[in-house]
Amino acid sequence: MPVTPVTVRVSLGWNKNRMQVRISPWSAHITKPGQGIIWRPTASIQEIKISKNKPSDRWPFNPAPPNKAYKGNKARPPKGRNLKPGTKGKRFPYKITLRFSDPKGKLRRAMIDPDMVVEV
Fold first, then answer.
1. Is the peptide bond preceding residue 103 cis, with omega within 30 degrees of 0?
2. End-to-end CA distance of the chain
3. Backbone angles phi and psi of 27, in degrees to 5
4. Which of 22, 51, 68, 70 is the most buried (most CB within 10 A)?
């Protein structure tokens, strides 16, 4: 039976011309064998890309970024699957890059740096 992936919700909004980004949960905990992760952006995010902070950083899934599985949008959210052995008890910092339009229609980009924790 398939295991439900951890969902990380990524939202972006504006309050008096100030961008507000929310990542929930900030630290995604993978707690079951075979569990993956899916990053679900809101419609206001035109593109979301998941990457390692540095190319030499470890990654818990196979394949690792850069890979088309880690780039998407609301209709096709990025996913991490195929947990590698030897990841239990490790923390994996990563980067979320968002492309979106500001209230004036100008295309912008933001980068956020949350964590994944593998507990299985």
1. no
2. 17
3. -105, 110
4. 70
